[in-house]
Amino acid sequence: MIKFEKNIFGYIEGYYGNILDWKSRKRIIKKMNSLGLNSYFYAPKEDIYHRLHWRKNYTKSWQNNFKNFCSFANENNVQVIVGLSPGLDFNYNNILKKDIELINKDLEILLNKFQSLIDNGANHVALLFDDIEVNFRKYLPKKIEGLVHAELINIVSDKLKKNIFSVPRIYSDELIRENNEYLKCFFEKLNDQTNIFYCGKYIVNNKFDTTLKLIIEKKKKNKVIFWDNYYANDYCPKRLILGPWLINEEIKKVMLNLTGMIETDLLIMEIVSKCKFSKNKKESWKNVLKINKVPEEFLAIYKFFEKPNLSSDKKIKEIKIDKNIFDKIDKLLWKWKTPLSREWYPYLLSLKQDLQILNDELPSNRIFKTQTYPLAKKFLKIDGV
What we know:
It is built from 12 helices and 8 strands. By secondary structure, the chain is of the alpha/beta class. It folds into 2 domains: about 280 residues, TIM Barrel (Alpha-Beta Barrel), CATH 3.20.20.80; about 55 residues, no CATH class.
C-alpha cells in the first residue's frame, strides 16, 4: 500500500462541467500505473450524490461500478480517495458539543455514506468544504466557521476510526479575505494527522507557494497536498491549457485537477510525469507531443495554449503570430483526425475565429453566426434588433 505520509502524486476528478464514465476512469488508472502516479481522488462536482444531493445514497448500480473500479485501481497500484461535499446545506447543530454521541441526523447520514464508500473499496475518504457560498452566517457565525468545519472532520475521522483528508473552505491565500479568522480557527481544532488539500497563494498557480505561516508550518510537517488547477479549464471553458508543467520535483504531495476530457487528460498526465523530473521541461513536453503524434503544426500555435493567466498577472503578454498561422490551424482542423483532435477541435476553431476578429478579417455575418450575443454586439458595435 502507498505510504501517504511521504508521497502523493495523482489525478483529481474534481472539476465542473464534465464527468467521466467508468471505462474512462479505468483508462486513467492504467495510464497512472504506467507513469508512476499513485492516487485517484473521486470528487466530481457534477456527481449530484457527491455534492448537491449528498444526503441521498448512491444507486446499487453505481456502488457495484465503484467497487469494481476500486479493485481495478488497487490492482494497478493506485489508491482511491473518495470525497463528499456536504457544506452547501449541512446542519451543524451539536457539532461543537463535548459529547460527540449527540449526533444529529445530517452527521449520521454523512457517516453512513462514508462507511458505505469504504465498504465498497475506497482506500481513503475526504470531507470537502470548497466552493461554498460566502453567506455561511446563514448556518454558522463567522468566528466559529473554521472551528466547526475542523471539528466535523475530527468527528468523522474518530467515528470511522481512520485518518481522513479534507479541503477547507479557505483553500487558497487569495480567499482569506472572505474570513480572515477561518484558517487560524480551523488549524487550532483540526486533528494533527489530517492531510489538507490547498492550492497555494492563488487558486490557479504555476508554483506551490504561500504567504500564510499556518500553511507553511503544515507544509513543513508534510500535511499539505497541492491541489493543482494549472490545467483546469472549468472556470475558462473557452480556453485549453496544454503547455509544459512547471512545478518542481521536490513537491512530494500533488494531485492534478484536469479537464474531464479523457484523451486530453491522458496526455496532460504524461506531460506532468515527464516534466516533473526533467531539467529541460520544454524539451520533455515536446517529446510527449511527438510520441502522442500531435502534428508539428501545433508547435506554431502552442503559445495560445501554453499556460493560464494567473491572478498575479498584471497585463496580457504579447504573442508573436506566425504569418502562416491560419494554414497551420487549418491543417490541424481539417487534416488531423484522431480522438485527441476531436476534443481539441472547438478550441482550435475558436482560436482561428478570434484571430480573424483581431485582424478584422471575419465578416459580420460570420460574427453573427459564431459569437455569443454580448460578444457579437461588442465586436460589431451595433444595437440589437
